[in-house]
User: What shape does this take?
Amino acid sequence: MTAKERVEQQIQELKVKAIDSRSDCIARQRINQLFDANSFAEFNSSVESRLRNDLFNREPTQGDGVICGYGTINGRLVYAASQDATVYGGSVGYVHAGKIIRTIESALKVGAPFVMMFSTGGARIEEGVAALEGLAGVITALTKARRNIPILSVILGHCPGGLAVAASQSDFLIMNENGGDIFLNSPILYPSNSDDNISIGSAQMHKDTGVASAIMPDEDSCILKAKSYLSYIPVRSGLKRVFSRSAKVSDSPNRSSDILDKYAIDIADGTVPASSIIKEIVDGGKYEEIYTHIGTDIVAAMAFMDGIPVGVIGNESARISRDGMYKAEKLIRICDSFCMPIIFVSHAEGFEIGVGTEKSDILDRTASFVSSLCACRVPRLSLIVGPSIGTAYVCFNSKMLGSDYVFAWPSAEVSVLLPDPAVQILWKNRIAESEDPITARTELIEEFRSEVASADSAASEGHIDEIILPSSSRARIISTLDVLLLEYPMAEKV
Assistant: This one.
């Protein structure tokens, strides 16, 4: 064969390969679904697995069971790796791991997100220590990239052992409820009756563990969720910390919402969850929650405010749980890593009451939450909409905890205790000795609410910056964000 004929043959083979690569395996189908059409560029597609001893009779395979490369998602550069469970069970050998490591390192160099789609049997047994070292290399690469670039793990099949540790390094972990599982020890090591009707590592089990940011019903929804999460994370210029503003904003920054005035009146009955308020103030009423399956007392979400990507944390119910603290801290860390201001919508009477709460790790969770909040390097705003009492007020982005601005609605209350128990403690004897204890108690509660717990009282002390008209909340927050993004030392609009 002449040199010319050989080149012609190779060109034809590459054409055939390009056609076949569109749908030749499920791992590639997942890649094609994740990325914009025809944007994905693969690398190391021809690299082969290595046979390291004579005990196993496995032929080398091109690509070694993982597809790696880069492309665009909604026009944004993203790197990804997708494991192919049909190649040696998707097991991680040294070459397989090397491809993933290169992909992570390439993403880190340019500050692009990395998405890993897991479907694996774990470390390749026949490669022994070489497979383990490859796996350690993946974990190391992810550790170095963590908090520098967005990392998303999508659990579409099995994800055991060291791969589970790797997946847990991500900012977002999305599980397929139908076939995805993640665990440290294989279920075959457990007695068959170790847990009633719950498979080890399954999405059902992880609804209580806090491992997953989202649990979705099928593969398609998992991939769509990953793309949705990415749409809220600001684009970065390399590893430089910058605040960004989306180029597409159709919602007026000065839009008012009369329904918020009604909400402020209704809050006296405790009937307004933060999610309803958030919907009225963010761009287009749209936001993306994380950890919806745990800590339902807290809403933790990403949204846009006049095109500025922000994190929003609010109280869905009057009392805060340990899982609520956990999910709120997760969002704080994401916002701090990727330069997203944080907005709190506060309406909390305190933490959950009960022996079970005190026996849990709620103190550790809350301390960790407060530490992350105080350490974060992004603008923070608070909007107090109802009673904000005691330790819940202190922890939920209070002025002395470092909030840049604190706004309040006229319905806000700030106090060490709710007015009712406060009056019972302070004036128990006075109430008992009065001619009409019920009337006396009611009058004292109203006096306490007006003189001690009111938003006016907190504002007079300088702990609330401004009492605002509820319907103007969106405009006031956005105008304040505009100022803060200029004040912060690394602020830069792109």
Remarks:
- The longest helix spans residues 3-20.
- The mean pLDDT is 88.
